[in-house]
Amino acid sequence: MFDSPYSARPLPVRVKDLQRVNDPFDTVVWWKDLDEPLTTEEIETAVERGDLQPPDSDRYCVDQPCSRQKHIERIAWLVVNGWNQPLNMDVGVVGMALEPTWFVTDGNHRFAAAIVRGDDFVYAYIQGDMGRLQELVYS
Questions:
Q1: Mean pLDDT calculated for residue range 31-56
Q2: d(CA 51, CA 44)
Q3: Could you give the CA distance from residue 104 to residue 24 in angstroms, rounded to a whole number?
Q4: What distances in angstroms separate CA 90 from CA 28, 42, 86, one per listed residue?
Q5: Which terminal Cβ of the chain has fewer Cβ within 10 Å, N or C?
Q6: Per-residue pLDDT tens for 48-104?
Q7: SS3 state at 87
Q8: How far apart are CA 96 and CA 81, in angstroms?
Q9: What Å distances lie between residue 110 and 2, 87, 131, CA to CA?
Q10: Is the pTM of this model over 0.85?
């Protein structure tokens, strides 16, 4: 049986607390594609215009750089339609040589959408020291 390094079940993480330490609107998350962070205003404008791109759309690039507009449209789609897949997060382990500084390893578009929607919580599979999660995200 495969032993996953992530929590056995998704755990709730407060959006505002995670945003305080990892804000996708203050950091270039999609570094291979963007030179500056997206803005909530860009996402809100796309929602108002109906510029939405489903996550499974072949218009979205997985293996190659994507335009700023494609990232905006993907987040806008998630704002309107939601999602049912938890994020994956790695908070590291205190004392390890390479402690991560960006915790969301999968689901940054979903996390950005949760911020724009004003969600209280996102669910995430967590890898690493739960005490560190508590210290970093909830302190």
A1: 91
A2: 10
A3: 10
A4: 18, 28, 13
A5: N
A6: 999 998 877 555 555 566 888 999 999 999 999 999 999 999 888 776 656 678 899
A7: strand
A8: 39
A9: 26, 7, 24
A10: yes
User: Which phi and psi angles does 19 have, rounded to 5°?
Assistant: -65, -35
Domain of residue 96 covers 11-137
Decide if 26 is inside a domain: yes
Domain for residue 27, yes or no? yes
Residues 6+ away with beta carbon under 8 Å from 25: 37, 38, 39, 40, 112, 115
Instruction: Answer whether residue 5 is part of any domain.
Output: no
Which residue would you say has higher pLDDT here, 41 or 67? Answer: 41
CATH number at residue 105: 3.90.1530
- Alpha-carbon distance values, 84 to 2, 21, 68, 101, 128 (Å): 23, 24, 24, 26, 23
Number of Cβ within 10 Å of residue 119's Cβ equals: 16
Q: Could you tell me if residue 70 is inside a domain? A: yes
